[in-house]
């Protein structure tokens, strides 16, 4: 089936038989899928880091790392990624066992073309790809390969009802990611409801979450539907879950176990169908060790864990984010200003303990205080406490040089990895690992006009 979304579905094909791999690749590309083929499990893991597939189709029997080993690694690194196994008749029992371990399904060789396409469409539909476009992630501004991996993981899990725990420093965009998961999910047309568990008193938080009936809560004059009921059919974000009081942790655990909520003062529980996403900047493992967070609740919430990176680990996004905030301010107030080039340099090299939230506040402050259309570097220095941008460490400087060197080679070869690896005097697998480590993808350097 021809894909009609804003991008093609990406499929990673793995088979140590070059002929079969080529046939599989041709068949899938004929259906307008974006396909990459590799000949080993090790190469597949390296390719998955940069290609970010929506589906993996792998042979079961391969040297070094077989299909089962690859399945386990993929599940560990990218929970929710669908995997289809290719097997000969003699290994069908192994393939059946693999499906019990989490593989989406298996196909026997020689693979029937229509059966292959049917399985692919079913796997993509279940993963959520068929129902989404790139709009689901439009609020997350990035060109960071590291951040793209997080978004790929989020998109994979969006097609399931698995609970997600999002961790990361304050201001990294945890709520934006939760909203994106909801938008990419089958629940996207139902409510998305968020509550900050540290922003209100315990009794008020209890009432807001679970609801109350008339007269059961101080000052209540009518029944109140709690957020679990308001989010029925949709998604509930429990932000700053690490600050939830112990008594409410017990009540939340019961709701998750029973899929039902009992409002304050009610005699009967009400069934609810809610996908729960939780977020926190705190170390829940440490809180559990201190007896401040329930272990059984932690494992209920932490089915899939996504850690949002701090802004200092995605500095290439700073100019993009700055441009986004300036455009946003211009739409809101009509104030159209830009930064001087040296001011952008300063922003890109500064420390950001408050992450994206701090960057947004600084941009808004600079626009408000700048008396000229071009915001000078001196104003940025004042808002950040003065001083030049931070000098990189030796390791940072070495990484920057390596990334620049790899970029130049890919530019020279037009994104041809085999040719680039020969120029660098590295084998292809090691070269792919280098690219993944330095967040580079060959496609960025290929001639778009071809």
In short:
The chain is of the alpha/beta class. The chain has helices spanning 18-30, 41-51, 67-77, 92-100, 113-127, 145-158, 174-183, 202-210, 227-230, 246-258, 284-289, 295-301, 318-333, 341-349, 355-369, 377-383, 394-413, 417-424, 428-437, and strands at 10-14, 34-38, 55-59, 82-87, 105-108, 164-167, 192-196, 235-239, 260-261, 270-271, 275-280, 304-307, 338-339, 374-375.
Structure write-up:
The protein is an alpha/beta fold. The chain folds into 4 domains: 10-131, Response regulator (Rossmann fold); 158-309, 3-Layer(aba) Sandwich (Rossmann fold), CATH 3.40.50.300; 312-383, Orthogonal Bundle (Helicase, Ruva Protein, domain 3), CATH 1.10.8.60; 394-445. The protein is built from 19 helices and 14 strands. It has a 5-stranded parallel β-sheet with strand order 2-1-3-4-5, with helices on both faces. The protein has a 5-stranded parallel β-sheet with strand order 7-8-11-6-12. α6 crosses α7 and α14 packs parallel to α16 (377-383).
- The helicity comes to 40-55%
Strand proportion? 5-15%
Record field, number of beta strands:
14
Q: Which CATH top level class of the largest domain fits?
A: Alpha Beta
Largest sheet: 5 strands, parallel
Number of domains in the coordinates? 4
* Distance, first to last CA: 24 Å
Order of strands in the sheet with the most strands? 2-1-3-4-5
Helix-and-strand structural type: alpha/beta
Give the C-alpha Rg.
Answer: 25 Å
Shape: globular
CATH topology of the largest domain: Rossmann fold
The tally of helices reads 19
Mean pLDDT: 86
Q: Low-confidence spans: pLDDT under 50, at least 5 residues?
A: 1-5
């Amino acid at each position: 089936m021809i894909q009609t979304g804003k991008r093609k579905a990406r499929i990673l094909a793995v088979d140590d038989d070059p002929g079969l791999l080529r046939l599989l690749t041709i068949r899938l590309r004929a259906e307008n899928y974006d396909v990459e083929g590799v000949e080993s499990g090790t190469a597949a893991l390296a390719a998955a880091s940069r290609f970010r597939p929506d589906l993996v189709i792998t042979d079961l029997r391969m040297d070094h790392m077989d299909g089962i080993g690859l399945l386990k690694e993929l599940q560990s690194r990218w929970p929710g990624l669908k995997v289809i196994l290719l097997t000969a008749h003699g290994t069908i029992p192994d393939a059946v066992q693999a499906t019990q371990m989490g593989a989406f399904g298996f196909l026997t060789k020689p693979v029937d073309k229509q059966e292959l396409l049917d399985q692919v469409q079913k796997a993509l539909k279940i993963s959520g790809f068929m129902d989404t476009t790139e709009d689901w992630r439009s609020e997350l501004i990035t060109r960071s390969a590291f951040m793209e991996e997080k978004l790929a993981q989020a998109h994979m899990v969006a097609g399931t009802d698995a609970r997600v725990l999002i961790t990361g420093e304050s201001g990294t965009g945890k709520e934006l990611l939760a909203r994106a998961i909801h938008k990419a999910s089958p629940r996207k047309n139902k409510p998305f409801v968020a509550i900050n568990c540290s922003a209100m008193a315990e009794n008020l938080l209890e009432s807001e979450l679970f609801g109350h009936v008339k007269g059961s809560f101080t000052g209540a004059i009518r029944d109140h539907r709690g957020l679990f009921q308001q989010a029925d059919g949709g998604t509930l974000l429990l932000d700053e879950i690490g600050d939830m009081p112990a008594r409410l942790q017990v009540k939340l655990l019961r709701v998750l176990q029973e899929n039902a909520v009992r409002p304050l003062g009610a005699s009967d529980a009400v069934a609810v169908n809610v996908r729960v996403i939780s977020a926190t900047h705190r170390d829940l493992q440490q809180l559990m060790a201190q007896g401040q967070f329930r272990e059984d609740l932690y494992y209920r919430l932490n089915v899939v864990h996504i850690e949002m990176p701090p802004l200092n680990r995605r500095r290439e996004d700073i100019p993009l984010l700055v441009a986004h905030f300036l455009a946003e301010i211009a739409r809101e107030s009509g104030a159209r200003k830009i930064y001087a080039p040296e001011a952008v340099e300063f922003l890109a090299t500064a420390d950001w303990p408050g992450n994206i939230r701090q960057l947004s506040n600084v941009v808004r402050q600079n626009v408000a205080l700048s008396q000229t259309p071009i915001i000078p570097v001196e104003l940025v220095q004042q808002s950040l406490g003065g001083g030049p941008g931070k000098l990189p460490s030796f390791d940072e400087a070495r990484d920057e040089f390596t990334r620049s060197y790899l970029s130049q080679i890919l530019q020279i070869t037009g994104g041809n990895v085999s040719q680039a690896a020969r120029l660098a005097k590295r084998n292809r697998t090691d070269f792919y690992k280098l690219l993944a480590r330095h967040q580079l993808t060959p496609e960025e350097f290929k001639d778009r006009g071809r």
